[in-house]
Predict the 3D structure of the following.
Amino acid sequence: MRTPSSARITTAAVAAAFSLFLLIVCAGSQPSASPAGGSSSGVAVTAADRTEALHIFKTRCAVCHGQEGRGNGPASVALNPKPQDYHNEAWQKATSDATIEKAIVEGGTAVGKSAAMAPNPDLKHKPGVVVALKDIIRKLGQEGSGE
Ligand code: HEC
């Protein structure tokens, strides 16, 4: 009678070693400073970035997108298409973080949308602030479309 038990033990040992390897690799690549959200590109977001992003959102984006991100800010009246309503679930699902970040920095035309969505070239060298803005938009989306 053959005993497959030693083969089984070897397999288990290999599996354990591989899990440990994955654990070490994953722990090592964890972004250091992004408690909420974060970026697929591994950009670290500081608390200062989040404060600046919130300020920019309220003073720059809300004019069109609305303070609650419903696409109904004062300047939206004159716009067609309307500014994106961040509470639109279908849009949230369809768009990627990278697309949102690109639209913010390079403007609507860079992602095939309206030129009324203006670029923000001053944020090009502030990737942490851009990711923090994206997180604000994603968070508003999680609050649903009703009120
Ligand atoms: C002058 C008005 C205006 C301002 C200011 C503005 N937006 Fe927009 N934004 C728009 C419009 C209009 C669209 C919709 C474009 C479309 O659907 O074709 C849009 C779309 C977007 C989108 C959706 C892009 C996509 O992939 O579908 C994002 C994200 C966005 N804006 C973020 C921002 C952020 C962040 C700010 C502030 C830094 C901002 N916008 C400021 C008008 C504006």
